[in-house]
Design a protein that fits this description.
Number of helices: 2
CATH topology: Alpha-Beta Plaits
Shape: flat
Strand content: 25-35%
Structural class: alpha+beta
Radius of gyration: 16 Å
Largest sheet: 4 strands, antiparallel
Distance between the termini: 13 Å
CATH superfamily: Dimeric alpha+beta barrel
Order of helices and strands: EHEEEEHE
CATH class: Alpha Beta
Helix content: 10-25%
Strand order of the largest sheet: 2-5-1-6
Number of strands: 6
Oligomer: single chain
CATH architecture: 2-Layer Sandwich
């Protein structure tokens, strides 16, 4: 099974941290990347995002982000049959303790 771990982060989460603290956080992200079955990507800040939606049955494209309190900063794809493993890995993502959040979703299957 695949789990998607959506990382929502405060844009200023690292502001005010010492250089050593920032390096330690980046090392945590690098350690996550080394886990078997886990692939992740950081997203560029959404200064001019595009949102596609349907209005009156017609697709519309807006230059607005999806309405969320915290911007989506990145995501991980995890291959595991163990939901608890997904939760444990999500807890290790630094954004979760730096004022952000990690949302765990299992994609819909078409079977």
């Amino acid at each position: 099974m695949t789990y998607v771990l959506f990382v929502h982060d405060r844009p200023d989460a690292l502001t005010g941290l010492a250089v050593d603290e920032r390096r330690a956080i980046f090392a945590e992200y690098e350690a996550l990347q080394a886990l078997p079955g886990l692939a992740g990507h950081r997203l560029k800040p959404a200064s001019h995002p595009l949102t596609v939606a349907l209005q009156a049955g017609q697709p519309t494209v807006a230059r607005d982000p999806v309405n969320r309190e915290l911007p989506l900063a990145g995501f991980y794809l995890l291959e595991t049959d163990d939901r608890e493993q997904a939760i444990e890995i999500a807890k290790r993502i630094p954004a979760a303790r730096l004022g952000g959040a990690v949302e765990i979703q299992a994609p819909m299957t078409e079977s």
